Give the backbone structure.
Amino acid sequence: MKKIVVLAAVLAFLALPDSQAAKGKPIRWQATFINDGTANLTGPAVFVGGQDQVNINNGVGTHNGENYYYLELQVFNPSLVFNLGGFTDSGNPAPAPYGLPNTDTSWPQCVADFLNSAYQPTADYPHITLRFTTCGYPFADLMAMGEGQILPVHMNLMIFSHIWGCPANSPFTQETFLNLYMGAHGYYAGAGSTYDVYIKRVGNTWTAYVDTVFDNPDYPNLPPAPEYTSAAWPGAISDNIFGQYATCSSSQAGKKGKTTWTTTYHYTWAKAPLKFQIAFTKI
C-alpha cells in the first residue's frame, strides 16, 4: 500500500483556481439548470454569481504545466436535487467503517442514499463545485468559442466534507466521511451521436450538456482492486464516481526520534447514469 506524506498540494488540481485576471469590468454570470423532465441533477430556476452563497467563475488554471480553461458553479446553500440510481460497482467497495453520513448501506448504494435523501450541499458536505474544463482536450479558450460551436469538455462534480488532517490530534482526523468526486471526459461515441459531455455557445450563453455513464473508453481504467491509493485524485486517468477517505499512521526514528505522520488516501469507485443541462449566461 503506497503511503504518502501529507502535502499542501494534496488537492492542488481540485483546489479553486484563481479567478480571471481583473482587467476592465469583471464578468458577471448567472447559471440555470434546464429541467426537461429527464435530468437527474436539477436546481433552482436561476443562480446569480455573488448572491445567495453562490459563486460562478470562469478563467484559466494550470495542471501539469499546461493551461486549461474553465467555467464553474460553486454552491454553498442547499439547493441541488439529485435523483441518481442504477449504480454499478467497479469492484472496489469501501471498507467499514468508512462511508457517508446518515446512510446504512454499502458502497455504492450509500452514495445514492446520501445524495438522494436531501438537498445538497448539506451541513456535513457544505461545499459543491461543478466545473467544466478543457483539461484533457486541446486547450481551447471557452470564451473564444464561435457562435454555435460545440466543444467536448471535462466535467468535475466535487462534493467535499473536508480536507484530511494528520496527525491524530487534527480535528479532521476523527472524521470518517468520504469526499465525493465525479469525473467524466466528453467523448464522441460514433456516427449519429454527439459528445456525452460538451459545451455549446449561443450568443452570451455557454450551455453544458451532460449525459454520461462514466464510460469513456479513451481513458484507461483504474488499477485493479482492492484499492487505488494516492494523494492525487485518480480522476485524471478514468471516468468514475470516486469516494476518497484517508487513514493516518505514525513512525518514529529510534527511541527518541522525531515522529513522522503519514496519510494514506484510499479511493472507491463506481458508475451511474448522470444527465443534466446547465446554461451559463453573461449578465
